[in-house]
Amino acid sequence: MPTVAAHVAITTITEPDVNVVIDGVLYVPVIPKAVDGTVIDALEIRFDSDAGDDITIRDYLHTLLETLWTEGEGFSGKRPFGNSCWEFELYEPLIKAGFITGSLDEDGHIAEFAREEAEAYVFELIRAAFYGVSE
Predict the structure, then answer these.
(1) Of 7, 68, 76, 102, which residue is 20 to 30 A from 51 by alpha carbon distance?
(2) 101 closest CA partner among 43, 39, 10, 17
(3) What domain count does the chain have?
(4) Is residue 20 part of a domain?
(5) Is residue 15 pLDDT above 90, yes or no?
(6) Residue 114 CB coordination number (10 Å)
(7) What whole-number distance in Å separates Cα of residue 118 and Cα of residue 16?
(8) Mind spelling out the 3-state secondary structure of the chain?
(9) How far apart are CA 50 and CA 89, in angstroms?
(10) In a domain, 22, yes or no
């Protein structure tokens, strides 16, 4: 059986939170909320993107759905606003604001993040944008 080499780093942030990084990918066993803000607060974060400048996350999700509807079968899931990796446009401001776990490099781009947590939080944002939140 072949041997697989992997670089593993485990660091304790604050008890009992633990970062596990394998080959540069951050794995988080529990999804912690880094801030006390609500999902509604996260929807109002403003950022610049290929979908528009100084738009909110709510506006971005609206524009994405509107683009899908308008373009129909011609919609590019890989490049809905002209560039690939468009999901990262949402992840970056969410990391910066502390809503999802990760870090940004000196240019403000993602250095590392917890992908599963980020995707789960975006689904939470989509539900909140459509249906609000229940206490």
Answers:
(1) 102
(2) 17
(3) 1
(4) no
(5) no
(6) 23
(7) 21
(8) CCCCCCCEEEEECCCCCEEEEECCEEECCCCCCCCCCCHHHHHCCEEEECCEEEEEHHHHHHHHHHHHHHHHHHCCCCCCCCCCCCCHHHHHHHHHCCCCCEEECCCCCEEEECHHHHHHHHHHHHHHHHHCCCC
(9) 8
(10) no
